[in-house]
Fold each of these.
Amino acid sequence: MSKPVIITADSTCDLSPELCSRYQIHVIPLTITLGDSTFLDGESFTPADMYVRYRADGTLPKTSAPSVQDFLDFFRPFVEQGYELVHLDISAELSNTYNAARLAASELSGVYVIDSTMLSTGIGLLAIEAAECRDRGMSAFDLAVHLSDLRSKVSTSFVLDTLEFMWKGGRCTGVTAFGANLLKIKPGLEMRNGKLEVYKKYRGNMARVYKQYITERLSGKKVRPGHVFLTESGEVEPAVLEELTALIKQLTGCKEVHHTVAGCTVSSHCGPKTLGVLFIEE
């Protein structure tokens, strides 16, 4: 008889506390460092806090992965209680988090660590899928195989209002950011082979860009109707979010669209008013 299974993920999965509770998903936070202060991503420092600080003095936080010891301390109590674990991490192309988790898991038994090849609620979609399969009785080993196969069907993308935060984080040049902002270009980014790459450049008012982006991402796609995420980095108007949620339901037939706000790890690179529609294709 297989052991009971615990589903875990790092905090870049951007699942709300309500969703984590609903699906019994346990989260280990990344660390946010701002000056001499250290915070836990998603727990003691929010994107709203970050934007206030940035607008006051131009300072952005640095993020760091949990250490191998942090992961050992996180995994071990579950193992000692008789559980096996399936753990999901942000793409190994973007962070050392997966490698640290993998090294910790090698010192324990029954811990399956998966490189999601995703970020944000692209990871969250896989975590919820894992929880639902767990509840249907799937073993940890079979879950790990299933999730590894499913990764390629997860659609993770975002549209950005500005490249300023990408520039500040060293992910694009100042000339590129200045030119994009001057021309009012809104970059569309998607995950490809574990990396976040530009796939399109939108132009215009963000409310219109959001609608165009969502329509293009969903039209003609066979979207799994169970879970679709509308994930933003903060400061998107509630009325706009309500309208976009209705649009997603119209295009997919999905009755429940999860609205989440990305944590500081993601938001510190994307900046405010970034928005994504994330889903699994059939």
Amino acid sequence: MAEAIRMPLLSDTMKEGVIAEWHKKVGDTIKSDDIIAEVETDKATMEVMPYVDGTLLYIGVEKGKGVPVNGIMAIIGKPGEDFQAILDAENGVVAPATTATPAPIAATTETIVAIAEPVAESDERIKASPLAKKLAEEKGVNIHAVKGSGDNGRIIKRDIDSYTPAATSPVAAAAAPAAVQTAPTAPTVVVPVVAGTEGHTDTPLTQMRRIIAQRLAESKFSAPHFYLRMTVTMDNAMEARKAINLVSPEKVSFNDLIIKACAMALRKHPAVNSSWMGDFIRQNHHIHIGTAVAVEEGLIVPVVKFADQKSLSQIAVEAGTLIDKARNKKIQPHEFTGNTFTISNLGMMDIDEFTAIINPPDSCILAVGKIAATPVVENGAVVVRNLLKLTLSCDHRVVDGAVGSRFLQTLKTYLENPVTMLV
């Protein structure tokens, strides 16, 4: 019987998935573990497989178009099988038939698409990110000739941007593989800039960037933000980190120390570990710390679950693994959802201090700047201390100024005296 392959819900904020690439076409024989498409969500690009054997009878949308959650991506069945009944059942949404259809069958069944490990690409096709393929097509670059610098030789955006074709003879040019033909997508429009003239570059939004913009705008303009700033002296933390790394099986970073300190402070101030739910406030009993990570398409927030119950070395291992997965597009949905508090750290980029927009459903986000040697006055004398500036963005519907301030005071105590986190 024909089966509808539907768009799954891959994150708690996902409303639709965009088809970044189809790896099969109508008429192809499909095995249950074949990768049929890459789907771009609001968090990451995932490869999908149907867990259904048969023939690909129908593709719901072309590359670059979106499919709502639970909408039909494709239909798989026996060659020539009638699938019109499935489309008719979709509330009157009828797509063009792609194969001849005999008499209707008595019944149909449906299946939800299964998720394969992202970026695990086969040797039978080019190892390239959807964005790299798109740029190669737009620039007329023969992607077969590009050497990938990504994970396992995967071709990524910077490889296309930096690619310079080698001079080839007419014979070699004729022998080169033809560019892959795909359905038309909205191109990046580049207006050539000539001396003395104006120009611009228009880049179409990725699904991730579109959802980031939507969610942050909703957060900024629906949640009444206010900001609390505090300076922390990190001299003891720097010494403690050196001592910890002499015995820790995994190198502990300052960000790991901050994750642990925030988790411990949230345990004492559960009101900060809460979410605005519209007509009630949810106080979470678990503490899941998200850390904002910059990736090619925008931002993603890997989450260290139950961070208050883990040692510094455990946090270091888990956070490091999640950040690597995020940057290599191997992170899975359960690894970037469920946060109850978020940290955004730009200290490694030499930023002194900044404010961050709250990451829903959290009620607070901590912005972390760099540690800077700074002259300060102590007991009438000028001394140099290593100072760290923190800014806590709070949703005033959930967290009042006094509540947020007490949280920061506790966080400051933990960071200035790291040994207190161990007792």
Amino acid sequence: MTIRVDTMRRIDHLAGVPLCALLSPFVLLFDWLRSLVSQPSSSPKKVLFIELSEMGSAILVDPAMRETIKRGAQIYFLIFKSNQVSLELLKTVPSQHVLTIDASGLVPLIISTLKVLWKIHQLKIDTVIDLELFSRFTALLTGCSLARRRVGYHIYHGEGLWRGKMLTHAVHYNPHIHISKNFMSLVHAAFSSTQELPFSKILIKDEDIVLAQAQVSDEQRDLVRQRIMQCLSESNASDSLKSTFPNPLILINPNASDLLPQRRWAPSRFSDLISVASQKWPEAVFLITGSPEEKQYAQNVMNDAKSSNVINFAGQVKFTQLPALYQLADLMVTNDSGPGHFSSITPLATIVLFGPETPALYGSLGNSIPIFAGLACSPCVSAANHRKTPCIDNVCMQAIQVPQVISAIEKLLDTPTNEMVINFE
């Protein structure tokens, strides 16, 4: 059990603003005194990335982390303990370099935060890159690290989102370019030998964003294949389908995290999608994926689908087995959530449904097609509102119709899986 998202937001605002105001003078004084006695090294040597709450961001920041390694620095990563498994998919960060904060309750949060700050000082981290969009908590972590280079997003002349004077390298957050490019601009600022106002005055090209692919062994694929065949043998599918591995194998991810529940396409729409698709592709098998906690949610989708070729696969594989599952599958349909990004480290063709957020900023970097209704009110969440919307009726998701998704499935099933597409538009 973790602290509720809205509770975290309230704490971040009510406690974060005064703490930033209180600690900013001391951080600035420390920086000034240090500048009198020593000069910074020519380039970062130990870089800590901070991204606590979004598992998908561990994938989106990977090109920036690899650029940091390419420039000769060691990298570390700070993340909520419940999300650290997301770093195991690409293994860019050595496991011993992953620091965690326990958000299971207020007391564990405070204790683990103090321990992490002590660890940061012990490691002699010289550069901290705050990836979060204007979180006061991560700003305080960045400032209290007292690293020589502290890089993060700054509001400049914008109103609200004030985070004090915790940064030495304040980067302009650009809401008009993909988040992976925004992350790359932070790395540029960290390694810059001159001050820019604002950072970062560089052109980041699409080809600069290169996403690594997951390394999956034959043994891992075989284990997942066996699990699929076992579930298939226990299902109501026809005997002919049970005798061979499904072709095509289509994954359905109907849920989304509690961080933004408005991203969910209605469960009934997913059920209808399976019903229509199973008629169009009678030889296909549909696996409804999700975490063990989402098993009942997946079951409800399955129960309403008019198809015998559907399996509740929620909780059937470990998180670290997802790349193997994605390599075995032919296609996935998902809400805008972690799986849309996790699949991008494999060739899996993926359809991602967007509503409160935009694919222009958060589109998958893999072989994917985003579907976005583009209503006048969406995207309604952004860095400017801490990704919190007043919406209780996600018409932007309801506007996406089953035939649109079927059309996208047709397009992707006919596209060779080695034709990778990065959607920045």
